[in-house]
Amino acid sequence: MSPFDASRATNDPGDSDSDPNGDDAETPRRDAGPETAVHGGEPAARCPYCRQPFHDERFETLHRGLEHPSTLSTRERAAFERAYADEGADIRRFRLQALGTLLLVYFCMLFLYAIVT
After folding, report:
1. Would 43 disulfide with which of 38, 67, 103, 109, CB 3.0-4.6 Å?
2. Would the CA dihedral through 26, 28, 32, 35 be positive or negative?
3. How far apart are CA 82 and CA 24, in angstroms?
């Protein structure tokens, strides 16, 4: 069982250990946020506000800017804006590469069809 499956099993609202009336006053409930499994030991970064682990510090910076914007200092806000701009450039580059790949596959299939028929 992976760490992700283990954490889901412990947070399942239908556990057999829970009160049938749904009144688990002693059991603390986690936020409804996504479960994150970090492979390979300790995570590179953790959010100081919600303690969510991240593989890369850049992801943690983006998370803080998107999920906790009111708590950011000026320096943290500038770091978020730089990371957000870099992420946008990476996404644009990926979209162009995906479009190029699709066009290449389309024309290869078109030429192959023309040769076969």
Report:
1. 38
2. negative
3. 43
